[in-house]
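can u do me a favor
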């Protein structure tokens, strides 16, 4: 006979969770500041898994089906790393808050994916799930966090306070990244042409661009070849989203829209653009070719990273690309 759950357990099934695990993967790279502030404001301790490496990937791969993309395989590896570290691992699902504001379907299925992957695992994981309405109307987004706070046994007032703290932390993080990036561009532009480093815009989902196991070797190779790297995902999101209307009136994925908008805003101020995707990515496979048509007059390098490819190929391609940019700057062969 199934155990009888008390009224509190039904209303607040996660009230007993003292340590919340945050997998350092997928949207953690975009919303980690908000989630950390939210749980801390509710009085919880937060543990974040260590940055990705091959061991994390191999563990994630063993838990995944082959069709999963590299980024979601890594996610499972990070969840596994938290199994003994936290009372529950936060695995949100993302609602679709509007027609041009949807997320990759992987984000909607994430709690089910994790629950099923760990159902037979040696170390079971308790999943703290929530349906978040990120990027939608403020009322909906706030409501989704209020429900999450309630599931952890917080009063309405404490939930509201945690939501405000979370939004402030995320706003501050986003603004400081956008500011630092704008200063980097302005500083480079102030230098005499002969001393100016090559400015390269790297466009990728945040969990690809900033994960040391995914785009890390690309970023390292660009820097080793003397380039200054700007990240499209650190550009002002709202501005990128507005500008993306010039690219497509119907592209559904909000993160791809922000990236495209950032490329349109920045590509004339950089020497080249690098697109990086995690294999196999449905949204990127639909947008990358179209982006190539928009980036007129700037060399573009497209890289797809999968865990089997070593870094030697990446280094060679990046080196050749930087050579092309240097040649271009001296009046080379690519013209609008
Ligand atoms: S957008 Fe692409 S890389 Fe990201 S989770 Fe979806 S398929 Fe994977």
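np, heres the sequence
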């Amino acid at each position: 006979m199934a155990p009888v759950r008390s009224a509190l357990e039904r209303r607040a099934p996660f009230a007993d969770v003292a340590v919340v695990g945050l997998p350092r993967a997928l949207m953690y790279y975009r919303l980690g500041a908000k989630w950390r502030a939210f749980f801390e404001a509710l009085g919880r301790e937060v543990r974040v898994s260590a940055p990705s490496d091959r061991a994390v990937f191999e563990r994630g791969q063993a838990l995944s089906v082959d069709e999963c993309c590299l980024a979601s395989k890594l996610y499972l590896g990070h969840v596994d790393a938290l199994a003994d570290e936290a009372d529950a691992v936060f695995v949100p699902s993302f609602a679709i808050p509007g027609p041009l504001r949807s997320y990759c379907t992987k984000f909607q299925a994430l709690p089910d994916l994790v629950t099923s992957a760990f159902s037979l695992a040696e170390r079971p994981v308790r999943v703290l799930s929530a349906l978040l309405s990120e990027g939608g109307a403020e009322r909906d987004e706030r409501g989704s966090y209020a429900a999450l706070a309630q599931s952890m046994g917080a009063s309405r007032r404490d939930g509201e306070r945690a939501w405000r703290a979370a939004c402030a932390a995320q706003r501050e993080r986003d603004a400081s990244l956008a500011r630092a990036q704008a200063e980097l561009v302005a500083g480079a532009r102030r230098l005499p042409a002969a001393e100016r480093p090559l400015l390269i815009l790297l466009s990728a989902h945040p969990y690809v661009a900033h994960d040391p196991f995914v785009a890390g070797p690309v970023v390292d190779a660009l820097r080793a070849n003397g380039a200054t790297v700007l990240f499209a995902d650190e550009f002002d999101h709202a501005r990128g989203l507005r500008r993306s209307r010039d690219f497509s009136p119907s592209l559904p994925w909000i993160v791809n829209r922000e990236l495209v908008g950032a490329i349109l805003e920045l590509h004339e101020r950089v020497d080249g653009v690098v697109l990086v995707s995690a294999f196999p990515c449905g949204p990127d496979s639909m947008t990358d070719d179209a982006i190539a048509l928009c980036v007129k007059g700037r060399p573009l390098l497209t890289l797809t990273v999968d865990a089997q490819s070593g870094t030697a190929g990446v280094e060679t391609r990046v080196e050749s690309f930087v050579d092309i940019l240097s040649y271009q700057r001296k009046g080379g062969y690519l013209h609008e």
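Residues 69, 71-72, 104, 106, 205, 278, 281-284 surround iron/sulfur cluster (CB under 6 Å). hope that helps!!
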